[in-house]
Amino acid sequence: MQTNSNRISFLAKWSEKVVLGIVVLLWSALAGFRLLDAWQNARIIPALLAAQAGLMAWLLITRRRQAGEARWQHKVGAWISALLPLALRIHHETLVGQIITVLGLLIALWAMWTLGRSFGVAPADRGLVREGPYRWLRHPMYLGELVALSGADLGNPTPWNSLVLLILLITLLLRIQWEETAITGYAIYIDQVRWRMIPFLY
To answer: Cα(97)–Cα(112) distance, rounded to whole angstroms?
Structure first.
């Protein structure tokens, strides 16, 4: 019985490493394609998207070991949320939309960089971060994502894109709930930083 249990545990850890390796390779490739787009077209948004994808790949490799194991439902929900922005269909861009997108991406990048080795997609306890934008908001990375995608949607307000944004909002709200119950010491942090994503509103 113990041997079977050990074998299952080994296979689970091995398969998780394989999946992580595939995800890192895909995100690295995405960073490369976006960097090429930025170079060929001299545009800042693809450059920021390349930086975001590359940073995500690096942080997934170097992230701190988590305390406890996230539920599979939380893992699936978090990865759906992380992949949803790729489903947006962007054909036109407005100047205002581009400015909003750049602002959102800068916020998200700042938050990711601040998280450092505490970064992760699935909700887990990798240590509480209180520096950078986390001094004022508890989930600035999610705010950055929503702002960036809202800017992209301005020039492409299709039913499909609106649906993607709605599902993204729902999944982000779920991730917020999961993370706030998973991280040790979060109750004290809530007393120190009142707002989740939008000051004076949420």
So the answer is: 22
